[in-house]
Hints:
alpha/beta; Rossmann fold; eight-stranded mixed β-sheet; two-stranded antiparallel sheet; 8 helices; 14 strands; globular
Amino acid sequence: xxxxxxxxxxxxxxxxxxxxxxxxxxxxxxxxxxxxxxxxxxxxxxxxxxxxxxxxxxxxxxxxxxxxxxxxxxxxxxxxxxxxxxxxxxxxxxxxxxxxxxxxxxxxxxxxxxxxxxxxxxxxxxxxxxxxxxxxxxxxxxxxxxxxxxxxxxxxxxxxxxxxxxxxxxxxxxxxxxxxxxxxxxxxxxxxxxxxxxxxxxxxxxxxxxxxxxxxxxxxxxxxxxxxxxxxxxxxxxxxxxxxxx
Length: 246
């Protein structure tokens, strides 16, 4: 069984409740991987989920470790999470640059998928910061250097624009999404589906490896429940994972 490493898709929220003269606080930990993880497992993959708060220390520090996986998925995880392990940030100790390791892993035959969100691509306030990393070298799209979120509370419809094995069995029109990360296709990339004229699904051959992007989220809010429970949702992710991992 092929293994996939899924990094990201988790967050912690801290809320202040003010009631007149009094205030109190609540906190919650949430994850958004369940639809994507279930789709890949249904497609025959073993998914190792590494949430954001663990990825800083537990994401692999060698290409050899990454090669245990047929595919790495980065979903709503900022570059800083991998660039600032605690040994470096707190104690000024050197550690391998894991964005370089991802690039090398792909070039040597690995598969990479980047999924949209507030901290992938450029993201909110450009804090995703993936443009300035070696990962950009193996993505099929150019990451912007500004906040790239395209918020569409009215809903917009992605559409397939060419024939490809990833889209086999999938209708030309996708369910509406509520937002996505704006990117530009790179030379040598194939844009398979667009939303509002921008890449929605794009792929690229990277020496011995392959990469793909889906520029919206795999879960709410950008991907509403209607998208996540779409009858072709599971097939779409299986096809993408099959293609990048050969």
